[in-house]
Amino acid sequence: MNDLIIKQGKLINGDLIDIVINDGKITAIGPAAAVGLPSIKEIDLHGHYYVSAGWIDAHTHCYPQSPLYYDDPDLIGAACGVTTVVDAGSTGADDIDDFYAVTRKAKTHVYAFLNIARTGICSQNELADLTRIDNIRLQDAVRRHKGFVIGLKARMSKSVVGKNGLQPLIKAKAMQKENRLPLMVHIGSPPPRLEEIADLLTKGDIITHCFNGKPNRILDEAGNLKLIIQRALARGVILDVGHGTESLSFSIAEQAIKFGAHPHMISSDIYQRNRVDGPVHSLATVMTKFLNMGLSPEYILNCVTINAANLLHLPRKGRLERGGDGDITIFDLKNQRIELVDAEGQIRIGTQQFIPIAAIIAGVHIVVAENAAAKNMSAENMPVKNSATGRRIINGIPL
Ligand SMILES: [Zn+2]
């Protein structure tokens, strides 16, 4: 008896596949992999809905106790069709233990980029006081939470570093060398200038808020891709969207994409306020914005699956293959008009939309209630049933 079978899911290339999940892992996958197999739960998509590896949001804020940027991991994750979220520096060495404990109760997989400030983002200027960068405490926290802490985060903008300029980043690079973890660097208003920041970054380092419209944007005055960014990209530095409340400009992103500076990861920088009031709303909304800027559905899906998994060093995630984690996103790609707003209030009218329908997280099925209802797939007609009893299953709970 298998734990879960998904039948006739549609890949983005149109091929239909079955997926079999046991003990939270994909144990069989292929065009007719589930034919004749018994299972405790079965979801038959009849080729109507798409499946992909579970979506990974590489930049979020989901430490509920954080005073500034807080949210619940399941509200930004499972409830939005996202199976894995990465918190980008909400916590540091002082509160990572508490954050870890909170995340054990979440259905969504949660990982953390540890803030190089031991306090995390307890105030807007966590790196204005260099004594908060405590290497011994950081190393200890990384050791305690190996596998949960998957990177370091340094927020390098004027409001965060105060008068310290590049000093926090120089320290972050030194600490990163000892840990061999990816470093995510937030860019915003100078000082320090992007030119100085980018020069310190090496292969695998992540620039988040890469399409911000602030003075530290990646385009020069003439609208060309800054040479310093071209050099950084050639070295293997990663561009991550990190939309957030202030950090996605349609005009910058459109122009950068024209120059071939495509994002490697598409992330939301979501937290409660920009989820509820916008302009972020959800990872799917951010993905939809890039769809209407001309990136293909395949490219966008790669950004939130295989690219994110590879760049964040999560080898069993982001791919639909035997032995991979049983994390799947079921979604629709709908041709319909949608008004899209960036972080600067610019508006674009989109014609196609990613609509998450359900998340399967380590084999547990969670319906995206809002969209299931909007698509007339309420509790009664969501095509999920317990094949042993014939009962419907919603939110992983037999009804
Ligand atoms: Zn952030």
From TrEMBL:
GO MF annotations, alphabetized: deacetylase activity; dihydroorotase activity; metal ion binding
Residues carrying the site annotation Transition state stabilizer: 155
Enzyme Commission number(s): 3.5.2.3
Coiled coil spans: none
Residues that hold Zn(2+) 2 according to the record: 153, 186, 209
Keyword Metal-binding (UniProt): yes
Binding site for Zn(2+) 1: 59, 61, 153, 269
UniProt modified residues of type N6-carboxylysine: 153
Top-level taxonomic group: Bacteria
SUPFAM superfamilies to which the protein is assigned, alphabetical: Composite domain of metallo-dependent hydrolases, Metallo-dependent hydrolases
Pfam families in alphabetical order: EF_0837-like_N
Protein name as it appears in the record: Dihydroorotase
Origin organism lineage: Bacteria, Pseudomonadati, Pseudomonadota, Gammaproteobacteria, Enterobacterales
